[in-house]
Amino acid sequence: MRSPRPPRPGRPKASRPGRATKPAVRPPQGLPDRDTLLAFLRDAGEAEKSDIAKAFGLKGADRCALRDMLRALEADGSLGRRGRKGFAEAGALPPVGVVDVIERDVDGELMVRLVKGGDDTPNVRLAPDKQEASAGAPGVGDRLLVRFETLESGETEARIIKRLGAGAQRVLGVIRKGRRETRVEPVDRRSKDSFTLSEADGRELKDGDLVLAAVGEQQGRYGPKAAKLLEVIGREDQPRAASLIAIHAHGIPTGFSPAAEAEAEAAEPPTLSGREDLRDLPLITIDPMDARDHDDAVYAHKDDDAKNPGGWVVWVAIADVSAYVRPQSALDKEAREKGNSVYFPDRVEPMLPERLSNGLCSLREGENRACLAVRMVFDKDGRKTGHRFVRGLMRSAAKLAYEEAQAAADGNPGEKAGPLMDAVLTPLWEAYAVMKKGRAARSPLEIESSERKIVLNADGEVTSITPRASLEAHKLIEEMMIQANVCAAETLEAKRTPLVYRVHDAPSDEKLMNLTDFLGTLGIAWSKGQAPRTDRFNKLLAETREGPHADIVNEVVLRTQMQAHYSTDNLGHFGRNLARYAHFTSPIRRYADLLVHRALIKALGLGADGLSGEDETRMKDTADRITFAERRAMAAERDATDRYVAAFLSDRVGADFGGRITGVTRFGLFVRLTDTGADGLVPVSSLGDEYFIHDDRMHALVGERTGRRWPLGMPVEVRLREATPITGGLLFEMLSDPAPPDKTAPRPRLTQRRRVEQRPTRRRR
After folding, report:
1. CATH, range 170-249
2. Neighbouring C-alpha atoms within 13 Å toward the C-beta of 725
3. Phi/psi of residue 611, each to 5°?
4. N or C, which end of the chain has less CB nearby within 10 Å?
5. What's the rounded Cα separation, in Å, for the pair 150 and 18?
């Protein structure tokens, strides 16, 4: 008899949180008591009320009693909802589930959450796959199928089974022609498999073609899986392939149906019918220099009301997309599916057809346009004292770029801005100066953006990667848009009209504990007991802004925040420090804003094309859909940027760069380069000649023998070992020496889960 195989060293003993999707033993018949019902759900993972009633053989009055019992258990927090009808024990996780990657923690490790989980469902750490660690990890916005496993420490981890989305059964890859076969090598850096095409499919293909293929069955016991050619979408050596790959890899909906295009083409220019004439207001648009669509226009003047000395009136006019995209139309269905426009360095995948997005809905200079406008009144201290919405017809007096508006404010108006100074630009800046007082009193989060701008030439090749400028002109427009969004939420709440809020919850206790621990490694005190407030974060950022830790503190404070999303429940917006907030100002590129426009039209009686009954019925589902679409877009944009950056650096392999450690994980260090903002991995196996332990309390990799450390935030020098444009992967070699041991720190816990397994290797200089 064969003896049982011993456990593999270094692997934590794991068990599944749930034992089965259905209970193995038939439960006793009759109305269960509380403990029996919870035990049943614990075994089942989750179940609907009808399934529970059937399992216990309940009928008539017993079914009503079961309903009351479920409501009571849900009210006291013992049960949680799964989807619309399902119940599960509070905090329970199924053995296998579909999750979204929602954020990075302080150490840079990824956290996931069940797609159909309830409010009680915990966030779970995503375990790195050791076979794929050197090629990178999933990113925020990815959707995965995972297995939940409980470790000896009691912590639950999610282990990747496969990546989901449009490409779950399809593969996007590059053709590699061999003497005997044609293979498809996936562009996804996490995939280690390749697939073979039939002779007929491969005959006309060339080495380097980008293709979509359907995954088939494995050929033999050890051979590669077969694939069937679906579509040739381009070439890997095309400069613009990066965004094309991202679009297909993330399942971004592209193009429009003939029905939607026909509706857009049939749209007609607006008239004054049912609208207030705003064409005498010198509203102007201020946008990026290369913007093609213009959602918003602004204008300000002093308030002539004697009761408001020193006060200002600010107008914000927004494109009236709801006049063209009607509920249940083909345009509406496709806009809801897309959720938002997706922006890449070389192209835009718009939410609406060009006839609308760049035409009738874009507030073009000198052309009549339908708008939904809000007139806001502020006192001399920047407090908003009133507002009203109007449905109007406007004509933009000018189109300016942010740089032109900023130059004018700095005393250097150009040819276009010069004539606008007295009547338009000077009043706008004076009104903004007053609004800034209100903003300062509100104290929203002041986290600095590390976003980079990728500059392409006419051939689509990257010529430079530079920090995106943050001008005062950007902040002027941002503050006016924020106030308009607040007005929309306040009006709809007052009218008791359903709406989709933009919500941002306060940081969780766990995130605050991690922040406290990290700041302690820098010698910065942070009280654990105080409630999170934006002014506390701002004070921390201000005190460290000029010091050596400014960048990493800014980064960690950002990671401490929860991720904003859309919801029909008002949780407030922590980052902006607002009690209510809704997106109203960008309906050309966000479906959430279009819904808010429709809600305002209905609530204020501004037309017959407002919120429909079906809009209201499915609003919660829509909020979930557009949240997913937003994260899908973020993931696609990030992947395209990674590929463009890798292409830009591909001819500098072997060069040395300065950077900073921005992520500490069990499989290595993530380093961000100072000049380009590019992120890459230093594998743990290349760090030195000893074992390194991941110390989650000190946010560092610590040498088991010497105690030398690689802490989060440490400035380092690295050498670029590998840049792969087709996957966007960057691999670095560490040139710096580790920091000396921290004798005041407690010895890291040497557990199987935290110990980093590697072969001792000597670092090459």
Report:
1. 2.40.50.700
2. 22
3. -60, 130
4. N
5. 10
Pick 34-89's CATH classification: 3.40.50.2300, 1.10.10.10, 2.60.300.12, 3.40.50.300.
1.10.10.10
Query: Please, what is the Cα angle at 326 between 323 and 327, to 5 degrees?
Result: 145
Q: d(Cα 49, Cα 596) in Å, to the nearest integer?
A: 34
Q: Please choose, from the candidates 703, 444, 452, the residue with its C-alpha nearest in 3D space to the C-alpha of residue 576.
A: 444
Q: Check if the beta carbon of residue 406 is closer than 8 Å to that of residue 477.
A: no
Characterize the bridge pairing of strands 348-349 and 692-695. Answer: unpaired
The conformation of residue 360, written as its DSSP 8-state character, comes to I
Q: Which helix (H) or strand (E) holds 368?
A: strand 368-378
Among 89, 76, 86, residue whose Cα is nearest residue 122: 89
Contacts of 2 (CB under 8 A, 6+ apart): none
- Please give the C-alpha separations between residue 736 and each of 410, 613, 671, in angstroms, as whole numbers: 43, 63, 12
d(CA 583, CA 590) in angstroms, rounded, equals: 8
Q: How many CB atoms lie within 10 A of CB 46?
A: 23
Please state the φ and ψ torsions of residue 101, each to the nearest 5 degrees.
-80, 115
Residue count (the chain): 765
pLDDT digits (tens, 9 = 90+) for 52-105: 888 888 877 788 788 878 877 777 667 766 555 567 666 567 777 888 887 777
- Provide the sign of the torsion angle of the four alpha carbons 686, 688, 692, 695, taken in this order: negative
Q: Is the dihedral of CA 682, 645, 165, 568 positive or negative?
A: positive
One-letter amino acid of 329: S
CATH code, residues 653-756: 2.40.50.140
CA 30 to CA 111: how far, in whole Å?
Answer: 41
Give CA–CA dist 625/566, Å, rounded.
9
Domains 96-163 and 653-756 share a fold: yes
241 in helix, strand or coil? helix
| Cα gap 561→507, rounded to integer Å | 5
Give which of 222, 221, 229 is closest to 170, Cα–Cα: 229
> Picking from 152-166, 304-318, 389-403, 530-544, which range would have the lowest pLDDT averaged per residue?
152-166
Sign of the CA dihedral 747, 750, 751, 754? positive
In sequence order, which residues have a C-beta less than 8 Å from that of residue 204 and are 6 or more positions away? none
d(CA 711, CA 738): 9
Number of H helices, E strands in the chain: 17, 35
What confidence tens digit (pLDDT) does each residue in 663-696 have? Answer: 998 889 999 999 999 999 999 989 978 889 998 8
Of 710, 713, 704, nearest to 747 (Cα)? 704
CB burial of 624-647 (b: ≥16 within 10 Å; e: otherwise) equals: bbbbbbbbbbbbbbbbbbbbbbbb
Domain ranges of the chain: 34-89, 96-163, 170-249, 258-503+568-637, 509-561, 653-756
**Tokens for 183?**
């293979």
CATH number for the domain whose boundaries are 96-163:
2.40.50.140
Query: Is the pLDDT reported for residue 549 higher than 80?
Result: yes
pLDDT of 582 strictly over 90 = yes
Count how many Cα atoms sit within 13 Å of the Cα of residue 196 in the half-sphere of its side chain: 14
pLDDT digits (tens, 9 = 90+) for 626-659: 999 999 999 999 999 999 999 999 999 999 999 9
Q: Which of 203-207, 310-314, 607-611 has the lowest mean pLDDT?
A: 203-207
Helix (H), strand (E) at residue 465: strand 462-467
Q: Is 20:43 a contact under the CB 8 Å cutoff?
A: yes
What does the radius of gyration of the chain's CA atoms come to, in whole angstroms?
A: 28
DSSP code string of 391-416:
EEEEEBSEEEEHHHHHHHHTT---TT
Q: What is the pLDDT of residue 212?
A: 84
* C-beta of residue 643 within 8 angstroms of C-beta of residue 651: no
pLDDT single digits (tens) 343-386: 999 999 999 999 999 999 999 999 999 999 999 999 999 999 99
